Structures are given as structure tokens and as C-alpha cells.
Amino acid sequence: MIHMISGGATDRDSGRVRKAHERRLENFEIFRGVDLPQDPIISFGPEDIRGVVIPHNDSLVVTTTIANYDVGMIFIDNGSSVNVLFKSTLDQIKVEAFEFKPVSTPLYGFAGHAIPYLGQIVLPLSLGTDLRRETKMITFTVVDTLSAYNGILGRPALKDFRAVASNYHQKLKFPV
């Protein structure tokens, strides 16, 4: 059996909000005449592979800035329905000004069993460097378990940044 990280409170932690989200998915329609944002085209080419040793099976791991701390070993996971911050990482970040939100929605890990977690926290996350840097307030689910990574950026953060990941190119691109 193959599993992925799923569940968790991705859009608040109430049954009403989850049911409304399910109805939106069931009633999805393509709207005509609606002005959609004009995002730039994001592509990967031969210049993006420079410096990457080929062939490889490497995970896409980046360094970000979370709450003004440079945090390395952040795993980019297009399959995760939540952004995860491990308690050991959070312990190293001063978070007095930030509030934990308790949640009751189960979070399931790779093995398919529920993962206990401490709650959610909203922290500023910055991607990019210098003039090509973007900062967003990102909701993290905090788990108290061991990991090779300091955190996981899942679909919610990637959507917020409108980011596109390429494991092959070992790059994460987003409009700035």
C-alpha cells in the first residue's frame, strides 16, 4: 500500500468549512468571462540544469527564511496537503509573538496512520534572494517527531507562492 501525507486542517478546522470545500470541488465549473490573473510563464530549460549532477534521484530541498531565521533542509513536497514544521525546528525559532491554534482534524503520514501534532502556527516564510524575494504568512502544522528535514512545504505554500517545482532541475520557481 502506498500512502502520502494527507488530511490536517488545510482550511480552518471546522466541519462546515470542510463541507463547503467539498461542495466547491463537486460543483467545479469553468467560468467564462472571468478575468484571470495573468501569471508569467514559468519554464525550465537547459540553463536550469547547470551545476546539477546528472543522473540523480535527489529530493528538492531548499533553504528558506521562517520568522527571520534562515532554515535549511526544507523538503518541497507536491504530495503533502499541509505545510509541516517539526517541533525541534520550532524550538529554535523564537515564536512568542505567534499563536498556536489547536486543531482536531487528523493528519495522516506515509504509513497511513494518524500522526499526533501539536497544532498549527502561522509564520512569515520568505523564498528567494535579494530582489527576487517574496514573503507570505504560511500556516504550518507542527508535529513532534523525528525527521531528516526541518520542515515540509506542501501544496498550500506552493499555491500561495504560485511556485512550480522541478526535482530534475533542483529548482523552485515562482513569480516575483
What this model shows, in words?
This protein has a single domain, classed as Cathepsin D, subunit A, domain 1. A hairpin with a 2-residue loop joins strand 2 (61-66) and strand 3 (69-76). The chain is 13% helix and 33% strand. The mean pLDDT is 85. The protein is globular. The strands form three sheets. Strands 2-3-9-4-8-7 form a six-stranded mixed beta barrel. A two-stranded antiparallel sheet has the order 1-6. The chain has a two-stranded antiparallel ribbon with strand order 10-11. The protein has helices spanning 15-26, 87-90, 155-161; strands at 6-7, 61-66, 69-76, 83-86, 100-101, 107-108, 117-129, 132-143, 151-153, 164-166, 171-173. With 176 residues, the protein is mainly beta.
Structure characteristics:
Cathepsin D, subunit A, domain 1, 176 residues, single chain, two-stranded antiparallel sheet, mainly beta, six-stranded mixed β-barrel
Compact overview of the structure:
By secondary structure, the protein is mainly beta.
Mean of pLDDT: 85
- N-to-C terminal Cα separation, in Å? 40 Å
The number of E-state strands comes to 11
| Rg estimate, integer Å | 17 Å
String of helices and strands: EHEEEHEEEEEHEE
Strand residues, percent: 25-35%
CATH topology: Cathepsin D, subunit A, domain 1
CATH superfamily: Acid Proteases
